[in-house]
Amino acid sequence: MKRINVIGTSGSGKSTVSRMLANRLQYPYLEMDAIFWKPNWQESSDEEFFANLTDRLNDECWVLDGNYNRTAEIKWARVDTIVWVDYSFARTLYQAVKRALIRIATKQELWDKTGNIESFKKSFLSRDSIVLWTLKTYNKNRVRYTELLNDPKYHHIDFVRITSPQKAKAFIAELST
């Protein structure tokens, strides 16, 4: 395991699992949202995003945190392992809401030098709400990721499906550094 992509619905725990994996394996942690988002919630163009992502994935070892389905050809060209964080709907929704509330309360900048912070309006009352996104994509993602597991096009990739925080900790603890 040298090039790992951690996937899952927003709020599932991708970032937590990714950071734990990167720390355990002593690999660079790459966050797709940090590569994509610019200051003031401006989005990168696909051209810019794809170039930045390709550049960041040139290293020999990394843990990539994120989905962005349109980047599959780029990120999975060299990936050897996909870790799917597939917790229950109730747990995922709870984590998404809790995370949003903590970020709102702490006014935590999400990605360095962007100034992007969560607000109550953006998190709960907007069409771009991360909580709404979690509600809308949970079932679709489970179908899509199950299909990926069985797609012969990706037979060269090891898929690891993690269904609870306890199983995530056990999986990571078993890894040798």
TrEMBL record:
Top-level taxon of the source organism: Bacteria
PANTHER family: TOXIN, YALI0E33011P
TM ranges: none
Organism for this UniProt entry: Vibrio hippocampi
InterPro entries linked to this entry: Cytidylate_Kinase-2, P-loop_NTPase, Shikimate/glucono_kinase
Protein name: Adenylate kinase
Classification via Pfam families: SKI (PF01202)
Lineage: Bacteria, Pseudomonadati, Pseudomonadota, Gammaproteobacteria, Vibrionales
